[in-house]
Amino acid sequence: MKKLDEPSEETKNEWENDPNNWIWGMFYYNPKDKRSYFPKRINEFGWHANYANPIFVIIVALLVLIILAFIKNGK
Questions:
Q1: Which mean pLDDT values do the consecutive 10-residue runs of the chain (75 residues) have?
Q2: Can you tell me whether residue 5 is helix, strand or coil?
Q3: CA-CA distance, 42 to 20, in Å (whole number)?
Q4: Distance (Å, rounded) from C-alpha 49 to C-alpha 58?
Q5: Start-to-end CA span in the chain (Å)
Q6: SS3 content of the chain, % helix, strand, coil (to 5)
Q7: Predicted TM-score of the model (pTM)
């Protein structure tokens, strides 16, 4: 069942096709889009990440900290 506040598929496609939502054509940044990740047009190529989503930023920061901790402990 679809949530009432969730945008339609048409709106999501418009956001994805809007060049203003892409930084350098590679990084998706749209504060209106609440998705952290969404599939690329060709599903076999993986996922896009929304760099405007605070949850995504927290996940990336935690991953970086974990990697740095492993590097530091490896020396």
A1: 73 88 89 85 81 91 95 80
A2: coil
A3: 21
A4: 13
A5: 51
A6: 50, 15, 35
A7: 0.69
